Amino acid sequence: MLASGAGAMNRGGGSLARRKSGLMVWDLGVRLFHWALVISFALAAYTGFLGPRNWLNLHLIAGIAAGALVIFRLVWGWLGSRYARFHSFPLSPAAMKAHLAAIIAEYRQAEQRHPGSQRLGAPPRHHPEAGHNPLGAAMVYALLLAIALTVLTGAVALGGVVKQGPLAFLVSFDLGLLIRDLHQVLAIALLCMVGAHLAGVIFESRREKINLAAAMITGRKPIPGAATPEPHQAARPGMAAIVLLVLAAAIVPATIALARLPGRGVPPATLDPIYAKECGACHFAYPPSLAPAAVWISMMEGLDRHFGENADLDATTAAHIRDYLTANAAEKWDTRPAHLFRQRDPADPLRITATPFWQRLHRQLPEALFKLPAVGAKGACNACHRDAGTGRFDPQSILVPPILVPTEARP
Amino acid sequence: MIISRLMQRRVRRSAFILLLLTAPTALAMAAAGTAQQQVLDQYAQQAKTADAGFNGFSADRGKAFFLAQSAAGHGDTPSCSTCHTTDPRQMGHTRAGKEINPMALSRTPDRFGDINKTEKWFARNCDTVLGRACTPREKGDFITYMVGL
Fold it and tell me: ipTM of this predicted complex?
């Protein structure tokens, strides 16, 4: 037992030594970049596709990290060490074709030697790639481009739809929605590309008999015939740090300054005091941007039959409130609630919780939630949307009170 | 000797401070009392005009009125107690989920002190619960019940 254990340790030590003796291909910058990108991509994909809406901040952190990593990689492709540099792996359709042809030729040779066998014959290759093979290089550029586009479309969608971030002052809701669709298409494409990247790594690892995933951890590839010293290009981390600092000094303050500008078509955060007092006496004072003017007018005309109660006001107060509501109705604003609450239920046009949008977004919530003392009723938006009074309804402001019987009354 | 004199002085001083602190509250309560009394006087006058045999408001009638069930209203709120609960000293809840301060004067000292506000809510809620306006006697009974709680 002891002896075999010692043997295993020796073997382990031996393989480590072999790895150490391999050619240093991926410098620390490339490796840190790669695994940090794996983490941020996984987090962004999880929070984007599966996470609840109020995890948006995690999604934003992941997206910002991915964007920063792409910028780092662009700088490192210029100032990194030999195999990190873009000119060491040019995008070359001719080389890609040749690479594919070589793979097909290997299959043909294997077929001739062992008819019927699908195993790769793997005849000794004269030039196993030290850095990226031509197909891998193309994938690197495709991934960098797709991630950059996903981050940019995400920022546009965030600005237009959620009215947050550096583009909130600029992007309309309609454009934001369109770009959000593009963001989602890009995200799905990225998932496919990551799958293809993994398949390529597995395929080439078996073909070249080199563990390429391990190489991305250790940085070394045990390449036969690589003992011949190659013209080495050292990384210039100092220069890279200066370039990155200059970029950060330009991008970060500009982004923060833009994000502080008032959002395009975002209503003021405070309500008319008379409206807030009179209407807020019985219910959450709905910001006027949550209903179109026509709804507010019929609401004010039917105050004596207001959702099953008489809510009459004196004529002066009623006129003041009607003017305020119609002047600030949904048509005037560009927020997501202002757009989506314009569609009303024809059978119950005045009721916000009857709108198709409200129904769709709250369908998974159990009926018992709305009966909690902390909530009280479906129309108490501010019980969960802590910023409901502003009319913004930011995803990050959602805080649903805990409910002990979550399965009760679920459809 | 000195200590006990000091203690005496301290006691006297704290009594004085206590008086200073409580005097405005007591004054406010007395003022509130008169405000409610003025509202009640107005309803009493109206009640006398409507019915010559009117002989004062009754907290018991007010309580019965508060707890009564009616089928003539808008339907969702058959009683005052639907929203205000059967104990007016408790917080109530509107159907829209908003809390209502207790109706009892002991819990909400400015209740029924403003005739316009009082009239606004009687006009709304009598129609909602009963499907009609309340009589001056009903209003006075209701307030008398709440003032005494």
Answer: 0.77
